Amino acid sequence: KKTKKSEVLGFQKVACTLPSIIAESTRDAKILLVLVFMVVIVTVRTQRQAERASQPHVVLMVVDDIGYSNIGFNAKLIKQNEIDKGNTEFDLFEAHDFAADGISFSLTPHFDRMAEEGTILRRHYSHVTCTPTRMALLSGRLPVHIGTELGEPNTWDGGYNKSWGYEGVSTDMTLLPRVLTDAGYRAFHVGKADGMGIASRAHMPLGRGFEDSLAFFHHGNDLYTYEASRFDSGAPPACSPYDQMVDLWDNDQPAPSNTTGYEEDLFHARAMQQIDRFADEKESGESNAESMFLYYASRLAHTTLAVPDAFRRRVEDAYCHYGGDACHNHQGLCALRFDHTSVLGRALGDCALDERVEFLSMLHYLDHLAGDLRLKLEARNMWEDTVFVWA
Questions:
Q1: What are the C-alpha distances in Å from 173 to residues 27, 149, 154, 197?
Q2: φ and ψ at residue 58, rounded to 5 degrees
Q3: Residue 35 has what pLDDT?
Q4: Is the dihedral of CA 135, 140, 143, 147 positive or negative?
Q5: How far apart are the first and last CA of the chain?
Q6: Is residue 351 classed as helix, strand or coil in its secondary structure?
Q7: Would you put residue 17 in left (φ > 0), alpha (ψ -120 to 50) or beta?
Q8: Are 147 and 169 in contact (CB under 8 A)?
């Protein structure tokens, strides 16, 4: 039996859909759709899921500033194409077979596993910048129709937004979380909210249909202080052109002043709590909602470039193995472990820039987060009924 797209997703309205999801199902079907760059990974189970829940859970994980060849399965395809052309010496760090060297390392093992389990689709369209892309995905409209550009929250949009006029999708427009909540979902959000706007509470995540959110509204902020500055976001922060403004919001209020830690850790922990909250309240009967929508808008790997030390160390060691002598100093030590301006940090040859190593470390961490999300959904017996999208 063929199932219509709206039936698969449980949408009661068709004006706003996930434009990348196309699924025709048979019994026990498992469909994994993958697109990179942008990358969309979707896991759909329909007939079996219909026996266990009326609608699938939807996890939409949208990442930032990741390149096509930075993902392992894409890089391996590029490498194989070059080898097929006779360029047998061609290699990429992202595609290198470390296992063959006896090294236990893979840059994106969880994303690669999802791709291996499913189907890879490569025809995809997105805006050239991140903010309009995210809002197009949530609104189902092309960026030119939503009035959102690459502006900061205090950017005047020329009066397009009838609610206020500052940067942000008009509150006259219905976004995906509202459509899903109207269809019986509970909607949760963590991460970036640039493009929604902060002109009023109606612009913010809770006003868009989410019931819980931990977010920031600039394009970027500091990963440890959460301050939006010209360096972090690309423009002077709203309301504070000279001083730095803390941009981290717990629902529609500033996050508690004693909040500390790596920002993506905070988003990760909140997402885990949201999954547990949904599952616990469903099991206890406190909530009669059958399905959950989690919008995880990761800020990785947008600037600023920073990552927990453990992930940086793994990538440093792997890159020094990959780069060989060129990445070591005159003492035979991995030069990436030292300040590149010091004698110890001077590599013997051409090695990776520090920014590339930091970026790859953030991507490695991001892959770890995706794996954790899957483990949590499996632990709460939700994975088998989940549509997982990575874009």
A1: 36, 16, 20, 13
A2: -125, 120
A3: 33
A4: negative
A5: 29
A6: coil
A7: beta
A8: yes
CA separation for the pair 2, 90 (Å, rounded) = 44
- If one counts every other C-beta atom within 10 angstroms of the C-beta of residue 192, the result is 28
The SS3 call for residue 126 is coil
CA-based nearest residue to 8, from 59, 47, 51: 47
d(CA 28, CA 106): 31
Helix axes 109-117, 354-379, angle to 10 degrees: 60
Q: In angstroms, how far is CA 19 from the centroid of its own chain? A: 17
Report whether 61 contacts 373 (CB < 8 A): yes
Tell me the percentage of the chain whose pLDDT exceeds 70.
80
State which amino acid sits at residue 157.
D
In angstroms, the CA 380 to CA 391 distance is 24
pLDDT, residue 235, reads 53
Tokens of 155: 């950017």
The secondary structure of residue 156, as a DSSP letter, is B
Q: Which two tokens stand for residue 284?
A: 């206890």
Q: Tell me, what DSSP letter sits at residue 174?
A: P
Cβ contacts of 358 within 8 Å, gap of 6 or more: 305, 306, 307, 312
Q: Cα–chain-centroid distance for residue 8?
A: 23
pLDDT tens by residue, 163-206: 556 778 888 899 999 999 999 999 999 999 988 888 888 989 99
Q: What is the mean pLDDT of residues 216-244?
A: 70
Residue from 180, 125, 176, 115 nearest 370 by CA: 115
Minimum mean pLDDT range among 215-219, 249-253, 342-346, 373-377: 342-346
pLDDT of residue 171: 86
Question: Whole-model pTM above 0.85?
Answer: no
Contact 36, 68 (CB under 8 A): yes
